[in-house]
Design goal:
By secondary structure, the protein is of the alpha/beta class. It has 10 helices and 8 strands. Strands 1-2-3-4-5-6-7-8 form an 8-stranded parallel β-barrel, surrounded by 5 helices. α3 links the parallel β3 and β4. α3 packs parallel to α4. It is globular, with a radius of gyration of 17 Å. The model has no long low-confidence stretch (mean pLDDT about 90).
Amino acid sequence: MTIRADDRLIVALDVPNALAGLDLANRLGDSVSFYKIGLGMLTGGGLALANELKQDHGKRIFLDMKLFDIGATVEAAVRGIARYDLDFLTVHGDPNVVRAAKEGAAGKDLKILAVTILTSLDRADLDAALILPGDISDIVTERARRALAAGADGVIASPQEARAIRALPEAKGRLIVTPGVRPAGADLGDQKRVATPARAIADGADHIVVGRPVWAAPDPAAAAAAIIAELSA
């Protein structure tokens, strides 16, 4: 049975270069409509692949750059990226960074998503980085609130924080995108704060990002279809 693509699923093209990414996209075919391209592929033709998938294949593209710099530099970088007519771009969730990114994206449809706390981090990691003490969920929620108040179109957060963020007044009409999503029984890899696809959506996420459980599967299209079936159940 063929399952139609569901753009709530974003497949992370965490492969070495654009050729491998295009090969994977071809194998996934019509089963996936939305892809994430991150820093790992930037020097391997990532921007060219993003443009090709968008313009020639009609896919939606999430460029995961996690930009963080002084305002003028962020604004200039986002203005350049916005010329590609992509869909989502990540920046760090500091309010000044968000405001600069929104200036750079002015007049374009590019959605600026603010990173809260990476899903590969736990409290011990935050302690090592001298991050404010306290419950990690509370910190994520407050960072999300401040980023949304600064104008972010949405936030990146683990599925474990999606429900609390969705309850924020500032989150009304905004996007929540959750990496750290793993189908039941899947290897966690480098993720620490995870949930299943269905749970992430039920808790308020608009999109889930899944990488290894799809691209490392013997049949990536079947793996993607299984996730979509779970979302639709």
